[in-house]
User: Fold this.
Amino acid sequence: MVLSSPKRWVTGSTPVEGASQTEGSSLGPVRLFVNTPYPILGNLLLILFVGYACLGADTPAAVIDGQVAAVHDGERITLRLADGRRRQIRLLGIRVSTDNRRMAGIARRHLQTLLAGRYVSIDYRALLPSGVILGRVLHGGSDIALRMIQAGLAEVADKRRLEPALLERYLASETLARSKGMGFWQTSR
Assistant:
C-alpha cells in the first residue's frame, strides 16, 4: 500500500513536498533529482559523474609494490614482487639519452643510488608489447622520474601518457635543469 503525503522524499529520511512513501518502509524512495521528468536517468547520470570524478582520468590501472632487484639503465628497473616474481618496469614520462655513453652511465648510477634494494610503488599505466610495465615509480612519496629530470639526467618523453599537471611539473623541472646546465644539459649550454 502506498501512502500519499503532501511531502516529497529527497533522501531516505528527508521529506520534500509531494513525495510518497511505501507503508512499512523506514526509508522512502531515494530521489536525488526530484524535479526532473526522468528521475532514474538523472540519478544514473549523477552516479556516473561522481564515479568519474572519484576515479579521475589520471588514476593508474593498478599499484604494484615490490623491491628493486636491478637497475638496467637510467629508465628501466627490475622489481621483485612479494610472491617472488620479477617484473621489468620502465619509468613513465622520461627518456635517457644513450648518445653520450658516459652520461648514460651516470644516469644509471644515479637511478641505482635512488632505488637499488629499496621498496617502491609502481602506478601501473600500461603493458608494453615487450612485456615491460610502464608506470610511475614512487619511493617514499617521491616521483623518481621527476628526480631524474631535476638532476638533468633524463628528458621528458611519452607526453601524451602524462596527465596535464604532471606534464607541466616535468617540463618545468626539465627547463630548470637545462638553464642550470645540469647533467646532460651541461654540454648543450
